[in-house]
Design a protein that fits this description.
Elements (H helix, E strand, L loop, with lengths): L18 H7 L4 H47 L9 H14 L8 E11 L5 E14 L10 E13 L2 E9 L25 H19 L6 E8 L17 E14 L3 E4 L3 E5 L6 E9 L10 E4 L3 E4 L3 E2 L5 E26 L2 E25 L1 E13 L9 E3 L8 E3 L5 E2 L33 E2 L14 E3 L27 E4 L3 H8 L12 H12 L6 H4 L8 E9 L10 E2 L2 E2 H4 L11 H21 L2 E8 L5 H6 L5 E4 L2 H15 L1 E4 L2
Parallel strand pairs: 4-5, 4-22, 22-25, 25-26
Antiparallel strand pairs: 1-2, 2-3, 3-27, 5-21, 6-15, 7-14, 8-14, 9-14, 10-13, 11-13, 12-13, 13-14, 15-20, 16-17, 18-19, 23-24
Helix pairs in contact: 2-3, 4-5, 4-11, 6-9
């Protein structure tokens, strides 16, 4: 190799004379020197790799924290907008900080900021957008003037719903008229108080719907239904009429005659039924030498023969008045007179003559009709009485003599029912096959499996179970209140239920804000759960509507059961099980029904139906609103699905939590 002298080479007379020039001329240790020179760019490359690796580690954690923040915000939101939800924003910050705090990996972290993703009209869509950033300080890259690397993360979260059927089973008993935590309200006398629990339930249900509806994606189906319940349910008009019996025995009363007053006979006018011919004229008298003015005939007259009376068959009308038709018959003879004067002489200018009086007769047959009546002294018989329900169940007005003073009462079916055959077990470990009232899916095929229309206008209680009589005048109560007619809370009928259907915000709002969505009656949890399960079951009464969804995908089925009271049956209430004081369908014929015994029996039935519903893969959510979370309510709910809410805010939050869990929360960005 030929070495070139840089200093003496004329072609390089302007070559540098510094360290590198000397290094080039000096062959001693040149390899080490060259390696040292190469370290400078190598440090830049290695430093960049280290700093970028740290930055991307922070980027990964930043994205994870951002995702956690928007998910927390969306799950916490009580409406469709996060912008006005301070709690949701705070939850986003809390979850973000849990995943990535300021100073982690030496980075300066800017916490998450969440906002709404609007639609084309600028309205919140329920989608939460988040942004966050972090400045990662460099180490070796500082040599080249790069002191930090800024990492930015964006994220979004939304709720998406698959096919969901949600049946609201809502307690609408009298206590719902009161505000929460006001025991002195005493049901507010049947009048809804300001800020009542039922009014807050209305708002909570609408917000629940809005959350799920916003999360329902195209092609998925969300259906909502309602079972308002108290001591009965209003479902009859939603069932085929063939499922309702054509006759039923009601604990009623009927008027009977204890004795009769003296008979009285009244008649109509006589009338001619047959007429003969006039006889020939016959002379009655002849008088001579009579002035013409004195020649007069007697007045026409009628004479009557003996009366013959015939009695018909006695009948008794619906008021127990006896009536016997009578017919009187007699012969009538009409006498017709005429006088004829014939002049015979004149004396002193006065004319005299002969006066002849003649008679003819006519015979007729006369008849009159009447009736002999007897008015009863009434009494009442209180007993099980069979009534024809075939027209009543079709919504036709039917008149019965069950009003005060045995007056007519016109009634039209409101849709509430009496349950079908049951068994009076005190404890249900499972549902017996002949307890048709608790069977969710069994369809009616005979009278014992059919439902009966509730008919409160017929119902009268009495002191015992056997048929009794009373001299009551028919008022709703009599001396000692032995006999009475259940009305108002004692014969409550809630708003008609609504089958599962794809509903709009307006239809949900209108249903729960309708004037007939009101609170009245006693608390029978089993009544609500039985019919909630029937309405959502895919294999029962509404199988043709519930079995599948239009998209062919599986359907998640839910019951949201909300109550503000403990089980509170009453033997005097005309309920889904008739008049328990007398019918004794729950307590059993041999047992006098007491509140404590009925409560235990209804709770056992409630628990059995809850389990039967869960066995059909129906998820049960329970909200105990201003009411102790009892063991029965806790156990009725699917695992982890029971909520206690002591006030209105907690109740609405519980519904939102349920809606968020029913919806599938997912990251959309």
């Amino acid at each position: 190799m030929k070495l070139i002298n840089w200093r003496s080479n004329p072609k390089n007379k302007h070559a540098p004379r510094g360290f590198l020039s000397r290094l080039a001329r000096d062959r001693r240790g040149s390899t080490v020197a060259m390696m040292a020179g190469a370290l400078i760019p190598m440090i830049g490359f290695i430093g960049s790799a280290v700093d970028i690796s740290r930055a991307y580690l922070v980027k990964t954690r930043l994205q994870q924290a951002c995702d956690a923040g928007v998910l927390a915000a969306r799950r916490t939101m009580t409406g469709q907008s996060v912008s006005s939800d301070a709690n949701a924003k705070q939850q986003a910050t809390n979850f973000f900080n849990t995943n990535l705090r300021d100073g982690a990996y030496g980075a300066t972290v800017v916490p998450i900021v969440v906002s709404d993703v609007p639609d084309a009209n600028g309205n919140a869509t329920g989608v939460v957008h988040g942004t966050a950033s972090a400045d990662v300080p460099t180490t070796l890259m500082k040599i080249f003037g790069k002191r930090k690397i800024t990492m930015i993360a964006e994220c979004e979260a939304q709720l998406q719903v698959s096919n969901n059927d949600v049946m609201f089973v809502l307690d609408v008993t009298g206590s719902m008229n009161c505000p929460a935590a006001t025991p002195s309200c005493s049901n507010n006398g049947g009048t809804e108080a300001t800020n009542s629990k039922i009014d807050n339930v209305r708002d909570g249900v609408v917000e629940f719907y809005d959350t799920l509806a916003a999360a329902t994606t195209a092609g998925s189906q969300l259906r909502i239904g309602f079972i308002p319940y108290s001591s009965s349910v209003n479902v009859g008009k939603l069932l085929p009429s063939a499922y309702i019996a054509d006759s039923w025995t009601y604990q009623s009363r009927q008027r009977i005659a204890a004795s009769y007053q003296a008979a009285q006979t009244t008649y109509g006018a006589w009338s001619t039924t047959a007429t003969g011919n006039w006889s020939s004229w016959s002379t009655v008298s002849t008088t001579n030498t009579v002035q013409q003015s004195a020649c007069t005939a007697p007045s026409d007259s009628t004479s009557y023969g003996a009366v013959t009376t015939t009695q018909g068959t006695m009948t008794t009308d619906s008021d127990f008045n006896r009536s016997t038709p009578v017919t009187d018959q007699r012969t009538a003879t009409d006498s017709d007179y005429q006088a004829t004067w014939v002049k015979t002489t004149t004396v002193k200018k006065v004319d005299y003559g002969t006066c002849t009086v003649q008679l003819r007769t006519l015979q007729r047959t006369e008849q009159r009709t009447g009736a002999t009546t007897q008015t009863p002294n009434y009494t009442w018989s209180y007993a099980p009485i069979v009534y024809d329900t075939s027209s009543f169940k079709l919504g036709n007005g039917v008149t019965t003599r069950t009003g005060n003073g045995y007056s007519n009462v016109s009634s039209t079916w409101n849709g509430c029912i009496e349950e079908r055959q049951t068994v009076s077990n005190d404890v249900f470990s499972s549902i017996p096959t002949d307890a048709y009232d608790l069977q969710i899916d069994v369809l009616p095929t005979s009278d014992i499996t059919k439902w009966k229309p509730a008919w409160p206008e017929l119902i009268y209680s009495r002191s015992g179970t056997a048929a009794e009589t009373s001299t009551s005048d028919g008022s709703t109560t009599n001396t000692g209140n032995t006999y009475w007619h259940p009305t108002n809370d004692y014969a409550a009928c809630p708003k008609q239920a609504a089958k599962l259907a794809v509903m709009t915000h307006a239809s949900v709002y209108n249903y729960v804000h309708a004037s007939d969505f009101k609170a009245t009656g006693g608390t029978y949890h089993d009544v609500g759960m039985i019919w909630g399960a029937r309405f959502v079951s895919p294999t029962g009464i509404f199988a043709s509507e519930n079995a599948t969804a239009p998209n062919g995908k599986p359907v998640n089925r839910h019951i949201v059961f909300m109550t503000d009271g403990a089980m509170a049956p009453n033997p005097l209430i005309y309920s889904l099980y008739g008049l328990e004081k007398i019918d004794r369908r729950i307590s059993g014929a041999a047992n006098t029904p007491t509140v404590s015994d009925l409560t235990a029996r209804h709770l056992s039935r409630f628990s059995a139906v809850c389990q039967a519903a869960k066995d059909k893969n129906i998820t049960i959510w329970v909200v105990a609103y201003d009411q102790t979370m009892t063991t029965e309510l806790q156990n009725c709910a699917s695992p982890g699905k029971a909520y206690y809410a002591s006030n209105d805010t907690q109740m609405k939050q519980a519904l939102q939590n349920i809606a968020n869990q029913i919806a599938q929360l997912r990251l959309s960005r």
